Amino acid sequence: MRKIILSILGLALIAVAYFGAKTLVNNKNKPKPVVPKVVKTVLTDTVKNTTVPIVIQANGNLTAKQRVELYSEVQGIFKTGNKLFKPGQKYNQGETLIRIDASEYYASVQSAKSNLYNSIAAIMPDLRLDFPDVFPKWQSYLNGFDLNKTTPKLPEISNEKENYFITGRGIVSAYYNVKNLEQRLAKYRITAPFSGILTEALVTEGTLVRNGQKLGEFINPSVYEMEVAVSKSFASVLKEGENVSLSNLEKTENYTGTVSRVNGNIDATTQTITVFIEVKHPDLKEGMYLEANLDAEKVDNAIEIDRNLLLDSQEIYVVKDSLLDVIPAKPIHFSDTKVILKDVPNGTIILRKPVPGAYAGMRVKSSSSTTTTKDSIK
Fold first, then answer.
1. How high is the pLDDT of residue 37?
2. From CA 221, how far away is CA 67, in angstroms rounded?
3. CB neighbourhood size of 4 (10 A)
């Protein structure tokens, strides 16, 4: 019985092996599936050479064109004024910014003025006797002398004798001594040189202000300048008075500026030249970061395309008979996203957008064909 069961199992294994081998042989002879060729659809443009302007892109921070750093030339207590000396405070031209207590110094000025008056009064009798022709003008000077006002200019000396007489009495030296004291007295009060706003305040009312101490900064918020650096190759084409398009980083606001100055010196390290752009707008603030587009020059018989369409070998892809090919191109100017090319024949069909995995000989299908201009390829 055991032999019969083993024989049946053996026959079954042989049958399974036979049919399995037959199945493998039949599958081996089946034809391989044909993989369909994928033809990519690409966006294309037809080249038409035109005059393309070179636009220099630069950026920088705004600074006030009129700026004053306030320093003290005298020492004293900072006295309270009509307006608080705080950042953001506005002042009109001629309005007092800072007033330092000058009571002690004012007294010394008045003393010097009084001495001058007394010296002139002392020589009046001699003038009446010895110089009767000049006595009236000196008498008029004394009559108009006011200790509470600025010392008036001395009468003009008529002749050499009068000069010797006045100078010998020490009148001229006393006068200039008074004027020197008055000039220093004026430094106890700092006025606004123009209408503007205080951007920095380093002292407060009641502070002891020392000689040479910085007190703050004052600017005119109506006019700003932006300093940008451009390549020295454009030094000859940048001119004063040209309009410049400006925008903020978010590209939400646009402004119009003017080239106010061009530095005549080229930076030896960076080989760039500094250009100053003046701009006015009520929304601008000092320190704002703006981008500028300066029109440098125009290139004839050229096109402008995206930078990523230019290969490292200075070539670009073209479409010929539904196949990709490459042709040489001459780059003239690079910007952040664009490149200006020459030597691309008119009528050439080029890619508008890069194709991943592109290679020469790749079969493609053009979806559209338009004229390549500066606006159509942006």
1. 65
2. 9
3. 8
Structure-token pair, residue 211: 């000689």
pLDDT value at position 268? 85
Which residues contact residue 90 at a Cβ distance below 8 angstroms, ignoring those fewer than 6 apart?
A: 195, 196, 197, 198
**How far is residue 19's CA from residue 39's CA, in Å, rounded to a whole number?**
44
pTM score, two decimals?
Answer: 0.66
**15 to each of 18, 24, 29, 237, 310, how far by Cα in Å?**
5, 15, 22, 94, 67
Q: Say if CB 301 and CB 262 are below 8 A apart.
A: no
Give the residue from 157, 159, 154 showing the smallest Cα distance to 140: 154
Per the DSSP assignment, residues forming a β-bridge with 275 are: 228, 262
Residue extents of the structural domains in the chain: 1-29, 42-53+300-372, 56-63+221-298, 66-101+188-219, 104-186
Phi, psi of 32 (to 5 degrees): -70, 145
- For residue 216, give the H/E element and its range: strand 214-219
Choose among 151, 175, 172: nearest CA to 163. 172
Close Cβ partners of 172 (under 8 Å, ≥ 6 residues apart): 154, 166
- Rounded Cα distance between 156 and 145, Å, is 16
Q: Encode pLDDT of 229-287 as tens digits.
A: 888 877 777 788 888 889 988 888 899 999 999 888 888 888 888 989 999 999 999 99
φ/ψ of residue 106, rounded to 5: -60, -40
DSSP string over 105-116:
HHHHHHHHHHHH
Q: DSSP characters for 193-209?
A: SSSEEEEEE---TT-EE
What three-state secondary structure class fits 365?
A: strand
Query: The domain 66-101+188-219 is classified under which CATH number: 2.40.50.100, 3.40.50.620, 3.30.420.10, 3.40.50.261?
Result: 2.40.50.100
- Give the Cα separation of 41 and 13 in Å (integer): 57
User: What is the mean predicted confidence (pLDDT) over 330-351?
Assistant: 86
